[in-house]
Amino acid sequence: MTLLAFLFLLIWLPAARPRHLPKAASDPVFGPRQVHGVLGGSVTVTCFYPPTPVNRHDRKYWCRQVGSRCNTVVSSDYVSPSYQGRVSLSDHPEAENFQINISALELGDAGTFQCGVGVNGRGLSHRVTLSVAEAPPVPEAAELFYVKLRSTWTVSCSFGADTADQRRYLCKKEEENCRNIVDSYQQIDPDFQGRVLLTFEEPAGSFSVTMTQMDWEDTGLYYCGAGEYGKEGKSKELDVFVYEDKNFPQLKTTVTGKTGSSATFECLYDPLKKSSTRIWCKWRLQGCDKIIDNSGFVKYGYEGRVAMFENPENQTVTIILNQLQAKDEGFYWCMSNELKEQQSSTELKVVKGEPALNGTKKVEAQVGSRVDLSCSYPCKYYSYEKYWCRWNETGCTMLPAQQQGLPGPAASCDTANRTAVLSFDPLQEDDAGWYWCGVKHNGVLGETMAVELQVSTGE
Known about the structure:
- The protein is mostly beta strands and 459 residues long.
- It has four domains: 23-133, Immunoglobulins (Immunoglobulin-like), CATH 2.60.40.10; 143-243, Immunoglobulins (Immunoglobulin-like, Sandwich), CATH 2.60.40.10; 254-351, Immunoglobulin-like (Sandwich), CATH 2.60.40.10; 362-456, Immunoglobulins (Immunoglobulin-like).
- Helix content is 4%, strand content 48%.
- The protein has helices at residues 2-12, 23-26, 53-57, and strands at residues 34-38, 43-48, 60-66, 69-75, 78-79, 87-92, 97-102, 111-117, 124-133, 143-148, 153-158, 168-174, 177-183, 196-201, 206-211, 220-228, 232-243, 254-258, 262-268, 278-284, 287-293, 306-311, 316-322, 330-336, 344-351, 362-366, 371-376, 385-392, 395-398, 404-405, 419-424, 433-441, 444-456.
- Strand 16 (220-228) and strand 17 (232-243) form a beta hairpin.
- The longest helix has 11 residues, at 2-12.
- It is elongated, with a radius of gyration of 29 Å.
- The N and C termini lie far apart (82 Å).
- Residues 1-19 have low confidence and may be disordered.
């Protein structure tokens, strides 16, 4: 009976997104599926490989499939006599690829080949079909994208000013159909909600699509286009391959915060270039609504609520959003004008509950008086570092220790003294503003509480 119940449960469990590792995980060499050339002309084949120390220094090769054998045409230190003078192989470890160039193409050059790393047939390889036409035209080759697992993929597409009024789209090829991922009519596949963005660009008819949190299942053929796929308009084939780089940092894809409390987000920026524009925005169907950036912009309604902290030592930027409300739920994006693969998205979920940091959130006082801003914390934070900072559009400036009554990290919880106090004596008119009480552990910023201090002259 127990077995029957278990089988019944399996039948009715909802299907989850598959988590099995595809071929990409075990054979991470990638290149074009098909290459087209013209008699007497030349072709260049680019093959990508993971940038491990072994792969960087290992043998690269291009071989021709003959039955069960693959005969070397060119490798890192060899050229077949029949191809002497018209084939070359160049390795570009910094770009994670190597290239094979074949010139003076002959009809007999057509066939099935492999590009690979290591030993023919035993190393990592990718199968390529080469066709040679007697005269042009030849089909346009797919654009290749070699994308790190959990990183971000961005593609730009342009089809001319005459397509500016047409529907723009990105779709993924699935058997005979092309599944719409996102289009300019704000139609988004539910599986990509919050992690894909279509943006119009200049000149007219141009647009880009950005997809975050790239997973194994995102490997495949895509088309960006104007009009309707397979019916009318123009399109471009995109071949995307996801591979794992174990050195690529993993970020949280979901952050949960309690109503009235705060949430902490991390963004990758390696290196932290001063010239880079760093933006944090909330994803919406029609675009990404900017909330804060590193130039001092803070969206109206977020004053005192959001701050950006740069961490050069680990090449990250921390964003803290406090005074959480249910309407804050959604997807938030870290964006930059550089380092596109490091753009990321995080879903914020706001749950009911009580903040761990408590105190009076709005304090009014007169110039010249003494004011104490208090922030009480629970025993779970007894070993954390506590701080007060003054909020402004470019961050939150840590205040001098002598102004703060801060109990330091302790070995045990003192139930009689669990309050961090910020004192003003005497209070001055320019002390008005927002102040944050917060905790951090091992240098990592945690929960915060915001206090608005209003100062009157007493006149």
